[in-house]
Amino acid sequence: MSRGLRFLPLVLLALLVAGLVWRLATPLDTNVASKLDGQAVPTFDLAAAIPDKPGLASSDLADGEPRLVNLFASWCVPCATEAKVLEALKARGVAIDGIAIRDRPEDVARFLARYGDPYDRIGSDARSQIQIALGSSGVPESFIVDGRGIIRYQHIGPIAADEMPLILARLEQAK
Questions:
Q1: Cβ contacts of 122 within 8 Å, gap of 6 or more
Q2: Which residues are CB-neighbours of 118 under 8 A, at least 6 positions away?
Q3: Tally of CA atoms within 13 A in the half-sphere of 96 that contains its CB
């Protein structure tokens, strides 16, 4: 065996380690772009999640006014932390509708009583069918829908207080 071939495994190992170090030093982009951005909201008509608030239909999202549609659940811990931010957005004049994912009316009512209720309407998505149609990966997740029912922005995860300017700017762009 020639002297150069003896070092081939070491050279291959060094290349592999260099490749791994490079990948760890430059991680992939973690932003997930919505496949529905620029498309109409899927057609749906959800029953009310709680008795004293109307349900939500896709036609409600084409009323001429941009809206924030928030997917949430009473069993979702990050949803509870996001509730104060949604209340602050509501106080700034943002129209917010909710979709309760795999939840019971009494649990949704208890959640709203405890953390606040920023929603104009709340639809019940008991089987996550609309959540899946929207391409949502979990809760909380929010969509900005323009006044014609077109999705303009998808926010994955809870909206943090420092992200309010982004949400407000995206709503302004959706007008």
A1: 48, 49, 50, 53, 54, 55, 56, 97, 98, 99, 100, 108
A2: 83, 86, 87, 89, 90, 96
A3: 25
Kindly tell me the sign of the dihedral angle through the C-alpha atoms of 148, 150, 153, 155: positive
**C-alpha 148: how far from chain center:** 20
Residue ranges per structural domain of the chain: 45-173
Per residue in 51-81, pLDDT (tens digit) is 999 999 999 999 999 999 999 999 999 999 9
The amino acid at 50? I
Instruction: Please state which of the four CATH numbers 3.30.420.240, 3.40.120.10, 3.20.20.100, 3.40.30.10 is assigned to the domain occupying 45-173.
Output: 3.40.30.10
What DSSP designation does 40 have? B
Q: What is the DSSP letter of 60?
A: G
pTM for the structure as a whole: 0.81
| Orientation of helix 77-91 relative to helix 105-115, angle to 10° | 60
Strand 67-72 to strand 141-145: parallel, antiparallel, or no bridges (unpaired)? antiparallel
Which one, of 129, 120, 118, 107, lies nearest residue 164 by Cα? Answer: 118
Give the count of beta carbons closer than 10 Å to the beta carbon of residue 31.
6
